[in-house]
Every structure is written in C-alpha cells, then in structure tokens.
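Human: I would love a firmer grasp of how sequence relates to backbone shape in proteins. Could you go through the record with me and say what the backbone is doing? Here is the record:
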Amino acid sequence: MRKMSAGIALALIAVLLVYAMGSFLRENWAANQVPGPLEGFWYVVFIAPQSVFQSWQPSFQRMLDSVRFPP
C-alpha cells in the first residue's frame, strides 16, 4: 500500500512539474507577457531562496575564514 501511494504521489508531482513548465512556456513565450501565478510560486520556492543563499554566502565565508583552528 505504501509503494502504491508513493508512486501516485510521484506521478502527481511529475504532472505538476510538466504543467508548470507548459504554463510557463505558454504564458511567457513573448517577452512582454507577465508571469502567471504558477511562475510566481516557482520563483518564490526555487529561485528566491538561492539568491538569498548567494547573498548570505560571502559573509558566512568571511566568518569561516576568521576562525583559527589549533594546529
């Protein structure tokens, strides 16, 4: 039963991703069209966290560089 529900969930996720990409291509084929709600959700979930991490990464790297480990 668990394998069947996992397979159904995986199929649902795959269908959602295909729908999102199709929606993105359909709505944004021209440069003057605004993104739809699915593209906004895609941006918030996948793109925005990466940009936050990239802006946070240099300060974190400086903090790591300032730590001196004993020999």
User: Anything to note?
Assistant: The radius of gyration is 20 Å. The chain has one domain: 2-66. The chain is about 80% helix and 0% strand.
